[in-house]
Design brief:
By secondary structure, this protein is an alpha/beta fold.
């Protein structure tokens, strides 16, 4: 593992090391991370970039008394190593194993459960207020990336933090990236600071020269310090943070531990909120990650020698691939179509469109709320915007979808990628709530395709709507099952796939494939069931529900989302007061932990075997009654 790393077995062990051992420990940690993540997969580049930064924080903290709040949290692997969790990396992000994000249930040293961006300053400020009210003695650090500063919540927090009369240290980890390359004014502003050493150099030179003057040196130095704002404005344009009322220190080399320790200790003594600007290199120490940090942001198991994936790429297209191709087709056919991404052009499949139609592609950064209202403005101006955001991140813009899109019934198309269970990132990333929160909104149409071809047709259909429409689709390989007759998508109409009797399976989106497999299992038991592809979570096809009553006494709904507020509840409510019996197959009203999608479906009863067994048991009880 490493001679020095072997001595790190519990919180604060790093403080027992001599300074001469810091650099070798950083090397051992990087070697450990590359080796372990090559087996399990995980967030590599971001963690390699903050090794020294994390070490410096731990050298300045007394954990768990002091608190480190990690923004997003995918860069907390070194923090986990330094708090005695090396052994947990063997099962990192695996079912029953260690989370890839901070988890308060996992360690007292994890201050807050995180997974989404731009939250850390708000959380840390709240903790600072709690500390002050309780009259506690603790230092609180918020670590936030420059990419997260494109999120408006960070500015709301900084605006509030400027009024703080006690200590809070905000560490700005500036690696010039979020997942993809940073965009926007803040990125440009930080770029100017990084490249401008004029102010710092002048200040140090003047203070050094004046301090040598007998008698007057110290007085003049104090006067120079008193006009520091004027000097900063001359040599560093804007000084945004200081203008907001925050004390700014930096920029500092994020791979120089001693510099950071000195800065953090100085900052922690101030009776105010302080920003320490630290410049790091994403992927540092592993050449493939340095050359391609976006690819190694979140990576599957790989070969250490060259960074190549250990997983053979699938021949089949993913749902995201099909979305990407359809967007290019629609852009060619419609000059009024635009596309909006929230810092995820590659992940959502919009890179090709951004290259071919750059004037109609907009990456707004990590700012989902702005993305939605920006799209609403374009729709109000006569354009047809498509907002492509992962399900878990779209929920951050709930009010904007409701207030800015749905009230005005504006024709914004929401491409809801990673809908349903996504696996190893756990609670903060599962896309299981979008059906419930989108279906609660008046004027919203909510669809889910059964396969890749239907996704293509649904997107074309959504573009023709005069109001908001959402198309949700899962992560990964697109199912190509079921013969496709290029059936026209009609608003609110389901697709009758298989005829049966007594029991009808009403499946939405990804669960149509499961329903077909369940049908085969039941057929082997002598039961012939109906399968309906619901297509729409909203509006529900009431005509089909009425037809089902003619030959069926029982209905089973299947959806890859939470039961509360989902399609199944709507079907149950429609059949209320009729003889029809309804069984809902959905996820429980709880947050779902990390693990493979297959393992999670098995645990929560969404796999074909469990569903078939439940239906057989239900059938036996029905006959007995």
């Amino acid at each position: 593992m490493g001679e020095i790393l072997d001595r790190i077995n519990k919180p604060n062990d790093i403080k027992k090391l001599d300074k001469s051992q810091w650099r070798p420990l950083a090397h051992e940690i990087r070697h450990f991370l590359v080796h372990e993540i090559s087996h399990t997969g995980g967030h590599l580049a971001s963690n390699l970039g903050v090794v020294e930064l994390t070490m410096a924080l731990h050298l300045c903290c007394d954990l768990p008394k002091d608190k480190i709040v990690w923004d997003v949290g995918h860069q907390s692997y070194t923090h986990k190593i330094l708090t005695g969790r090396k052994e947990g990396f063997e099962h990192l992000r695996q079912f029953g194993g260690m989370s890839g994000f901070p988890k308060t249930s996992e360690s007292e040293c994890d201050a807050f459960d995180t997974g989404h961006s731009s939250t850390s300053i708000s959380v840390a400020l709240g903790m600072a207020k709690a500390r002050d009210i309780h009259r506690e003695d603790r230092t609180i650090f918020a670590v936030i990336g420059d990419g997260a500063l494109s999120g408006g919540m960070a500015y709301e927090a900084m605006n509030n933090a400027a009024r703080l009369k006690s200590n809070l240290v905000i560490v700005l980890n500036d690696n010039q990236m979020s997942i993809s390359k940073n965009v926007g004014g803040m990125s440009s502003y930080l770029g100017k600071i990084r490249t401008s050493g004029n102010y710092t150099e002048l200040k140090e030179d003047v203070e050094r020269a004046l301090s040598k003057l007998p008698h007057l040196g110290s007085q003049l130095t104090d006067k120079i310090r008193g006009i520091k704002d004027l000097i900063k404005r001359i040599f560093i344009p804007g000084m945004l943070f200081e203008d907001m009322g925050l004390t700014y220190i930096g920029p500092i080399d994020g791979h120089n531990i001693q510099q950071m320790v000195s800065a953090f200790r100085s900052a922690s003594k101030m009776k105010e909120a302080v920003i320490v600007h630290v410049c790091t290199k994403k992927g540092k120490g592993y050449r493939p990650a340095e050359k391609n940090p976006s690819h190694f942001h979140g990576v599957s198991p790989f070969n250490v020698k060259d960074g190549s994936s250990r997983i053979v790429a699938a021949d089949k297209k993913s749902y995201t691939d099909i979305f990407s191709e359809t967007m290019l087709q629609m852009a060619a056919d419609r000059e009024d179509m635009t596309a909006v991404s929230a810092a995820m052009p590659s992940g959502t499949g919009l890179t090709a469109l951004s290259e071919k139609y750059p004037e109609r592609f907009f990456d707004v950064g990590i700012a989902e709320e702005h993305a939605v209202t920006f799209a609403a403005g374009m729709a109000a101006g006569g354009l047809k915007p498509v907002v492509a955001i992962y399900s878990t991140f779209l929920q951050r813009a709930y009010d904007q979808i409701m207030h800015d899109v749905c009230i005005g019934n504006l024709p914004v198309v929401f491409a809801v990628d990673r809908a349903g269970l996504v696996g190893s990132d756990g609670e903060t990333h599962q896309g299981i709530f979008d059906i419930a929160y989108l279906c609660s909104m008046p004027n919203m149409t909510v669809m889910a395709p059964k396969n890749g071809r239907e996704l293509h047709r649904m997107l074309l259909f959504a573009m023709e709507q005069k109001g908001p429409a959402a198309v949700r689709y899962p992560r990964g390989e697109a199912w190509d099952g079921l013969a496709d007759h290029n059936q026209e998508i009609v608003l609110g109409e389901a697709e009758w796939i298989c005829d049966g009797q007594e029991i009808a399976l009403l499946a939405l989106g990804s669960m149509v494939e499961t329903a077909m497999r369940v049908r085969e299992r039941l057929k082997a038991e002598g039961q012939k069931v109906t399968v309906v592809n619901m297509r729409f979570a909203k509006p529900i096809d009431e005509k089909t529900l009425e037809q089902i009553k003619e030959k069926h006494s029982r209905v089973v709904t299947l959806e890859e989302g939470v039961l509360s507020g989902g399609m199944g509840e709507a079907v149950t409510a429609w059949y209320q007061g009729t003889p029809m019996k309804v069984m809902n197959i959905a996820l429980p009203d709880q947050f779902i932990e990390h693990g493979s999608v297959g393992e999670l479906k098995k645990k929560y009863g969404l796999d074909e075997e469990t569903i078939a067994d439940r239906i057989i048991s239900w059938e036996n009880e029905y006959r007995k009654a």
